[in-house]
Design a protein that fits this description.
4-stranded antiparallel sheet; sequence-specific DNA binding; transcription; Arc Repressor Mutant, subunit A; about 150 residues; AsnC-type_HTH_dom; 2 domains; Alpha-Beta Plaits
Length: about 150
Amino acid sequence: MPDFDKIDRAILAAIQQDGRIPIAKLAERVGLSETPCARRLKRLESDGFIIGYRAVLSRKALEIGVIAFAQVRFSIHDRALSDRFEREIQGIARIVSCHNISGSADYLLQIAARDLDEYGVFMRDVLRALPGVTAVESILSLREIKRDTGLPLL
């Protein structure tokens, strides 16, 4: 990344905070004129540093009252079974994120639900029915202390 400098980092930091920041304001914030700033932003996009833009939605307004983390275990560690599991979870909107992890579980899922009843039905009818799943341990979030604010620019 020879062309990745402090201005590029400043651009990335600014758009992580506000993906809709006007180019004029972004340019001012990073100390460039608009045209060079727009060029750098376009380069960061085309080089794959920026893979998309999205809105941060309100859980309260959407009435999502439960955020749970589920540790999923497999008893058989078969590549085809894992691949099938990973494909199937891609289509389940309620699963906010999924990580293949080390330790006693195979996957860690973040799941959103309106309430505990809805989460329980999801666990019974969807999660436990996924290919390869032999055990699930739920961890309920009581309060969110820090929300995903973007990646650190190390």
